[in-house]
Amino acid sequence: EVHIKEPIEKEVNPRLLPGELLLCEASTVYKYTQDDGSNRGTYGKLVCTNFKIAFLDDDSASDDNEPQFKNKIVGENDITLQCVDQIYGVYDEKKKLLTGQLRKYPERLIIYCKDLRVFNFCLRYTKEEEVKRIVSGIVHHSQTPKLLKRLFLFSYASAAPNNADGRNQTVMFDTLEDWRDELERTKGNVKYKAVTTNEGYRVSEKLPLYFVVPICVSEESILKYEGRGIPIWCWSCPNGAALLKMSAFPKEQDDSTSQMQKAFLDGIYKTISKPPYELLKTDDLSSSLPSLQDIQTAYTRFKQLFLIDNSTDFWATDVKWFSLLESTNWLEIIRRVLKKAIEVAECLERQHTNVLLIEESATDLCCVISSLVQVMMDSYSRTKSGFQSLIQKEWVIGGHGFLDRCNHLHKSDKEEAPVFLLLLNCVWQLVQQYPPAFEFTETYLTVLSDSLYVPIFSTFFFNSQHQKDTNTSGESLKTQSGPFRFLTVWDWSVQFDPKAQAFLNNPLYAEKPKPDKSQRKTARFKHQRQLSLPLTQTKSSTKRGFFREETDHLIKNILGKRIGKFINSSDELPNSFREFYDGWHSKPVDYHGLLLPRIDGPEIKVWAQRYLRWIPEAQLHGGGTIATAAKILDLMEEVQSLQVKMDEEHSQAISGDLHSASVLSNSARLSSLFPFALLQRQSIKPALPTSTWKDLEDEDDLVKRDDEFVDLSDDMS
């Protein structure tokens, strides 16, 4: 049975942004809704522009169906060209990856997106000519290499009126004053100085125009090796210890060159190791952390677990969820990165030692570790404007190659690595462990990760400040003169109206330190799938395994016959680290002081909102963290109205944006993955989804029972 909405009679045209051009379109395209093979869906028009691929049905024309959390730039059925991950064609029920020129055109098109949405289009009822045009158009514009100036970023900047003030309290770090202010804020100006040596990019095109170095480092030293071998300042701790980073010399050098470079480095180290500077600890991240290739491989495996377009696949993978999750190695990489950040924090905080992070270009893992350390140690970085300023300082101006790492131009897959996503995943661990410490929410982080693929902002579309500066001075189409005026992603009003922006702010942010022990136990999100891997002992006994002894063996079978050993972080940890880590966790949390993430086994979780938000089966209707948030917002609204009654004058001073309260008032209707997924159809768990189930005993009893959640956090104490 095929459930069909009648084809549209009225013409629906795409809403185009300034500079956006319609390139090709196809009518009578049938879009399947993610479902259990019942072929439900809707007819509409599929279009491709120089900005996006969009599906337009009759709902697109009406505003009645608008979600409360609506993006003004990218609609529910829009995919920006940069967000397309892979495109498959279906020929006679066989899936084939589509790239380059096509000889034969598919009857179905499946588009996998980088934000993990999956779109399924049937082209069986579409005219052959239109199928050829739309399929080849979509493949060409989203998958083939392109020139930087062909990005929609430039079309939009030349056609759109730029009245937005993108600064909104975010420090951009593109002026000398910004760096001097940051030095003053962190009390680093006694030992460090902002330099103008790179004005006109005479030192290096990879370095920003302005940066900070130890006062004792001369201009001559900076110029000598194009900035390599120079300690560049990231942040100063209140006790005077500082976090520095350095771009290493290439390893393959002839003897005389490497001798000269070694002598140069020794001179630099000597200068910055004597008073007034603290002792110096160097950390070569290329040897102590996974390589970029390992990170890319792990993430590629990990995202496959969530690119699910039907219920059958979901339940088939549910049976072996733990082993699949562990085999990706993604959670282990997050744990290793967080552990490294704690080690650095220990040197700065407890040992009063300067830490120098070393990496080949100092623009990848250096950015991750330095940002994490600042989020953990500086409460300013946990405010919205502080976190945005941190991303500007360490990543955008710091020279992280967003263009190459996100592969926006499809130039080289070898350069691709989700380094910035890795940071957001690590910050999310902290946000969900210590919600009151952050002014922003997990929704903010999810939206920020989506913004990586929206090419109307310059923030994530250049490799360096030099590349942006040299491409900004282009001719504008309309005025024929003057530089491009790019938008910054930090102006959230471009994407969201005030009501939607309320979801980015945490109503429970602790404005003042509250070292109350009772607040440490925050509500845990208990999902159908456990979102973290179970903890094993270093030598797991054959009898006990992962679960409590009283847990019956049937449950163990359900979770997969083989669940590999997940390393407990207490393995191979030096005593001083463990002492620092355990010592901190034994005290009440100061939400405005140092924050250390919990990194033992099950504490590292899957970022459910980002990765599961498009999968109906993974939703808890009327449950999850959003149900808690709804109750809290109701209570806050009540308190606020009482406050108004008590003292009208005082109520004027109370800040707090409660736009979201009205949206959340009926929490029973919301999904746990709100605001991205509203209430969708109920997915029915199949009685016997895979052959594995057939091997299990007591099948009838099993179907009636939900997956049992074993909370292993108690076992750790």
TrEMBL record:
Transmembrane spans: none
Keyword Cytoplasm: yes
GO biological process: phosphatidylinositol dephosphorylation
Pfam families, alphabetized: 3-PAP (PF12578), Myotub-related (PF06602)
Domain Myotubularin phosphatase stretches: 173-611
CDD domains per UniProt: PH-GRAM_MTMR12 (cd13348), PTP-MTMR12 (cd14594)
Location(s) in or outside the cell: Cytoplasm, Myofibril, Sarcomere; Sarcoplasmic reticulum
InterPro entries, per database record: MTMR12-like_C, MTMR12_PTP, Myotubularin, Myotubularin-like_Pase_dom, PH-like_dom_sf, Prot-tyrosine_phosphatase-like
KW Phosphoprotein (keyword) present: no
GO CC annotation: membrane; sarcomere; sarcoplasmic reticulum
Primary residence: cytoplasm
Keywords: Cytoplasm, Sarcoplasmic reticulum
SUPFAM superfamilies found in the cross-reference section: (Phosphotyrosine protein) phosphatases II, PH domain-like
Family: Belongs to the protein-tyrosine phosphatase family. Non-receptor class myotubularin subfamily.
Protein name, entry field: Myotubularin-related protein 12
Species this protein is from: Trogon melanurus
Organism phylogeny: Eukaryota, Metazoa, Chordata, Craniata, Vertebrata
Encoding gene (name): Mtmr12
